[in-house]
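Bit of a strange request maybe. I'm writing a small parser for structure token strings and I need a real example to test against, not something I typed by hand. Could someone generate the tokens for this chain?
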Amino acid sequence: MKKKPSIVSKKLSHGQQKTQQSRLTLTIFPPLKTQALTEKHVQLDLNNAEFQRTWIALESDEAERVRSTFKKILKLTWPEVYKDKGLHWEKIQSITGSQGHESLYSFRLTKSARGIGFRHGNHLCVLLVSADHDGAYGKK
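Reply from user aminoacidic:
Good idea to test on real output. This should exercise your parser:
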């Protein structure tokens, strides 16, 4: 909320006047939540070409459900992602990471689709989405 500037005139010697403008700015912030002070929401990195290829290949209904899960993830902090029963975040033991990322993780995107990715700082870097649970791990 801003207050309109007021004009203040001061009389100077010899009958001159100097006009000054004073401004009062009041900024009101919403109350901060304690959680917001200590933990940030997860950010998504969906720039991997293989992820984009596999997401586009999904049926449109399935792709929309995946997008809905990504919207849910954006509202969570990392501790909430780890605990979320619907996402079922788990380390993949049979695959080792590359490019300096020691571990890859699997997480549920829909009833039939899983994502593969890794955590990089506050980002979830998604490498793949597979409509076949076993296919996400490279099994058939």
